[in-house]
Amino acid sequence: MTIPYIVFSKRSCGELRSCIVENYGLIRHEYPFINAMCIEVPEEKVARIKKHRLVSMVLRDGVVKKMSTSDSAYAAHLPIAIPFSATGGYGVTIAIIDTGISPHYDFLKPHCRLFAFKDVISNEVLPYDDDGHGTHVAGIAAGNGHSCNGHIKGTAPLANIVAVKALDETGSGTSSDILAAMQWISDNKERYNIRVLNLSFGVPSEEEDAPDPLVVGTTALVRQGITVIAAAGNSGPKSRTISSPGINPLIVTVGAYGPNGIADFSSRGPVNYSVRKPDLLAPGVNIASMNALNPKAYAMQTGTSMSCPYVSGLAACIISEYPRLSPKGVKRLLRNLAVPMRGISIDIQGAGFL
User: Fold this and answer.
1) Does the structure show a pLDDT above 70 at 209?
2) CA distance 79 to 85
3) What is the pTM of this model?
């Protein structure tokens, strides 16, 4: 029986290939941007691979899930998202790793802002979304309201989108496929001017300070100049429930609030004694956005999955106005825009709500 692992190398993975083959392993993905690869190998051979002089660490592949929940418990509607500035994110591309994207009119009219689509699961060429989550998320970030006379639009209605499908029809996936999507974004960031990455999914984080492949991947992208926005998770109200990659101190981690205040489901921090999360809160209850089943229709969803692209759109607007701003600068400005709530721990609200 073979088991998927992510193997990290101290330098280029080229010299490790023969070691993998000698131990009856299959290389599924290679990730040059972090010097790693995903392999399937018999479990009894893993110990030998770990001993290779170039191997820095070997981690089991993880299960990743979208961060949206049922809407049935919530009745009130939040206001539509309002663009941060007159730029509307113009000229900036937001990358979305999710369940795919449907060619909704709000991305295609009056001109196409869907710059690229990549499918790391089935290698399909034409854009599709067999779950609907990715389309909804993309609309919150960059829908322009074409099909509803502007009544429902995203926070960056002039931004461009690239969609990478790494979650399946149930909204689930693996860390290895997410890293493959990140590798594609790293390879294409200059071509499409990708400055923001939205991650509306997560995996339960391991013990404090344990190695995490999604943290390694997001760290590499931040160092390449990409502002990464991640959902905090839907495991609240318990503390220490922030999902990975939201535990990464270098990225922006977003919790959810609604008409009645902070959403109970929104995950809480801290991550550990030195990393306090989430960074801020954004609307995440009963959010209207694009419907993947109908290119002119809309749907409601709830979760930190919805809060996350709200902030990704705002990040695109900020970068459109200040194109030389670093990911650290974008994060600082977003936190400065948040409104703190009295008597609420920073491990629940971060800097406050947008």
Assistant:
1) no
2) 17
3) 0.94
